Amino acid sequence: MASCVRTVFLLLLGAQLNTVPVAQAQTPTPTPTPRTICPAQLASNLDTVINRPLFNRVRWGLLVQNLNGQTLYNRDANKLFTPASNTKLLTTAAALQQLGANFRIRTSVYQEANGVLRVVGRGDPSITDTQLTALAKQLKAKGITRINKLIADDSFVQGDVVVPSWQWEDIQSDYGAAFGSFVVNENAFTIRLAPQAVGRPLQINWAEPNEARIWRLLNLSATAANDQPTDLSVTRDLSGNVLRIQGQLAANASPFAVTLPVVDPNFFFLRRFRTALASEGITLNETAVEATGATTTEVAAIQSPTLGELAAKTNVDSNNLYAESLLNTLAVRQTRKPGQTTSALGLEVLKTTLTQLRVNPTSYFIVDGSGLSRKNLISPEALVQVLQGMAKAPTASIFRASLPIAGRTGTLKNRFRGTPAEGIVVAKTGTVGGVVSLSGYITTVNYEPLVFSVIVNQTEQPARVLRQAVDEMVVTMTQLRRC
After folding, report:
1. d(CA 474, CA 24)
2. pLDDT attached to residue 68
């Protein structure tokens, strides 16, 4: 990967401006006008939205069914679309089916001879400095006060730390952080840019001082006069050792935080663990990264929250790192072929599991677990089949609870407020450039429960406009009644 390629974080008018990989703060849905409608009227109501001149160049895929598979509306539902974060529905469904809602990911510390400790990471995406401190306390309780060598064993996750088909701006943004056997603080770090006297460069403050030694800074920024607009860019080489800061921040502006992904998750873990050990008075000399070794005597361990909780974090917040970790975790009970990556094996397990759920294996093609890759292709039909299959699965309630609630939680918190859909629609959002998707369940008031999937592709329209149209159609679905 060429080191000359960089990403730019544009901070305009105090807002961080990036491509939109996952739905974050969503546009509130306008107050709807549709009346209570009969099933026979659903098609004409949805077509009215789709056929607006504004959407002449838009490609729509839409399927609405009841839980038993009766179709109420179908528009190209068997065709393949770029799904964005709706991909996470496949990942979390397969993980819950394959591993169970109570499965936990374990991170272990093993003791070897001559003061050597080996930490075996298994891809837990939830580890923070707090959990590392808990590990350090366990070691201290065992009487360990000096470690001659600490090895990070990264043999669990084999393959690229980011998906090769992710776009360059994604892998240089916090939402595209690297994943692997070790994850700490979601493999991201933060710097804060603070104004000084007018004309002076911005002050750079590190939330994690150890990271400051890893980077070479080119601070070309300036403090502007009071009330001047924020116009900043933070760029980094893909080689990971240069941060270039340019632009201006007003003298009376608040400090601005920029979060960046780490370059090497293994060594980031070792640096954070060294800090945790020091806080407990444990001296650490040498560190190393290795792929294999003895794991006979476990002296400390931490566990992730349950898989049900990890799935909720994945879907409610549309967390890409969690999704990729869950995909790799699908391989935990399997045997990899020579040269096979962990994620490739996870994808095989995912497909087998979803086929058992009666999801048509030819109705989707995916290369990652999060939906960041533009190579992913999924039909609305496949998404509805996943939702229907999980509605009858033993983990049905946990899967459903992992989805954002309209107008209430996660990426749907600011959508559907004050509409008939609020509180009765639970669905997974998805947004990348030119793509908006929404798939989930509707508990209607005057009709039977519904499952739906809406995917919009190949459009130049702003995501805000597309979401409003999608939300209008979903509100229409909520107003079905028997007649």
Report:
1. 19
2. 92
Question: For 213-264, what is each residue's pLDDT tens digit?
Answer: 889 999 999 999 999 999 998 887 766 688 999 999 999 999 999 998 998 9
Beta strand 59-66 with 256-261: parallel, antiparallel or unpaired?
A: unpaired
d(CA 249, CA 427): 39
Question: How wide is the angle at C-alpha 428 spanned by C-alphas 420 and 334, nearest 5°?
Answer: 150
Judge contact between 255 and 112, C-beta under 8 A.
no
Residue 464 φ then ψ, to 5°: -60, -40
Two structure tokens written together for 413: 């918190």
- Other C-beta atoms lying within 10 Å of the C-beta of residue 367: 18
CB atoms within 10 A of CB 100: 14
Task: Give the residue among 156, 187, 371 at the shortest CA–CA distance from 272.
Answer: 187
Distance of CA 177 to the CA centre of its chain: 9
Return d(Cα 313, Cα 304) in angstroms, integer. 12
Output the DSSP codes for 223-251.
EEPTTPPPEEEEEEETTSSEEEEEEEEET
| Whole-angstrom distance, CA of residue 424 vs CA of residue 407 | 9
The CA radius of gyration of the chain, in Å to the nearest whole number, is 24
Provide the sign of the torsion angle of the four alpha carbons 357, 358, 362, 364, taken in this order.
negative
Domains and CATH numbers, the chain: 31-101+308-478 (3.40.710.10), 105-304 (3.50.80.20)
Instruction: Determine contact, residues 175/320, Cβ cutoff 8 Å.
Output: yes
Distance CA 326, CA 332 (A): 10
Q: How far is CA 426 from the centre of its chain?
A: 18
| Residue 185 identity | N
Tokens 């859909």 appear where? 421
Question: Are 210 and 232 a contacting pair, CB within 8 Å?
Answer: no
Signed CA dihedral, 72, 76, 77, 81: sign only: negative
CA angle 395, 396, 400 (to 5 degrees): 115
Backbone CA torsion sign across 140, 143, 149, 154: negative
The predicted pLDDT at position 204 comes to: 96
The pTM (predicted TM-score) of the whole model is 0.91
Longest dimension (CA), the chain: 78
